[in-house]
Amino acid sequence: MNPNDTGTHDHEEARPMESGTPPHEATVLARPMGERVLIWGGFPLVGAVLGWLLPIVADWAVSLPWFPFQGPLELVAGLPALVATIGGLVLGLVAGVVLALVSESEYTTVTVADDKVTLRNDAETRTVERADATAVFRDGTDLVLLGPDTGELARQGGDMPAPERLRAAFRRHGYPWRDDGDPHAEHYQRWVEDLPGLSASAHALLKARARAVERKDRSDAEQLRSELAGLGVVLRDRDGKQFWRPAPPDSR
């Protein structure tokens, strides 16, 4: 099978805009309001309840010598009841708000327009031109866009819109969405150190990335993925293992 052949089954071909056809308004896939209400209402509420329970738990736990964190628990148990209760409530409420802020910052909003798609969260914003995208699909929990050379233009994981929302938006704007996933899936093979077919530089980067994946250093792993893409190596992770396939190296 030609690795550049994206196939035609189980997906819609791209539909270029016809001359004179008015463009669609961009589709913004942000976090649904119901989820936001749940996060901003639920996290602080749960935090406050847990904070209110903290003095009660501390009084009980200090009577158990084997229970961990005896020092901090004895400190809480020794506070006046009113101070401990109010302090626990405030601490829990603040912790809940912080968790809500983190959740909001990690959510990726996907904006799909006729001419480009934008992936935005607090850490970064990436834009892919429609003309460059030859396939769009979900790979596990990741959203992936492939380019003409079969390399990845973007791979976005983490908290993001539901698959059915992504599918509907990309199809509405004429992108080549694939329900069958990666059209080059059969070309992946598991990486093994010193496996033939890869350069010494690629092996060194894959070895470093394996260590990053093992210690759950997502930032380092993604940076190394980008460097491997420059060498013409496309990656996917499965159960902590790296699988790779070749793609023409980019010109950067």
Automatic annotation (TrEMBL):
Lyase: is it a keyword of this entry? no
| Ranges of compositional bias, category Basic and acidic residues | 7-16
Occurrences of domain Cysteinyl-tRNA ligase anticodon binding (ranges): 196-245
**Keywords recorded for this protein, A-Z:** ATP-binding, Ligase, Membrane, Nucleotide-binding, Transmembrane, Transmembrane helix
- Gene Ontology biological-process annotations: tRNA aminoacylation for protein translation
Query: Domain named YqeB PH: which ranges?
Result: 27-178
Protein name per Swiss-Prot or TrEMBL? DUF308 domain-containing protein
**What's the source species for this entry?**
Lipingzhangella halophila
Q: What is the lineage of its organism?
A: Bacteria, Bacillati, Actinomycetota, Actinomycetes, Streptosporangiales
